[in-house]
Amino acid sequence: QVQLVESGGGLVQSGGSLRLSCVASISDFDTLSVGWYRQALGKQRELVANMSKSGTSHYADSVKGRCTLSRENAKNTVYLQIDNLKPEDTGVYYCYADRSDDPRRGWVEYDYWGPGTQVTVSS
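User: That's the sequence. What structure does it adopt?
Assistant: Structure tokens below.
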């Protein structure tokens, strides 16, 4: 059974940085598209960043310029570095992996999800 496990969340002051990690227990990790979503309390899940199978990254406007998505296939790991954190970055951060690159797929269709890691940014 495929598992994704996030780590690196926590409480950080506004202006600080965090590096989230997500390790996948899957043999063909390098063939998957990956990314991160987040969900604030009472709000819908929203995309933070994703990376296609070919390595092309896309960032939400809210984090563009502050966020770097990367992957290390040899370790089955995807990272999300967020700098200059703001209180509005607070939420549960979920990583995902998907066998499709189809941009028409909604997040509810993605193949694999982690349980999430809490990020709280204090002002």
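The mean pLDDT is 95.
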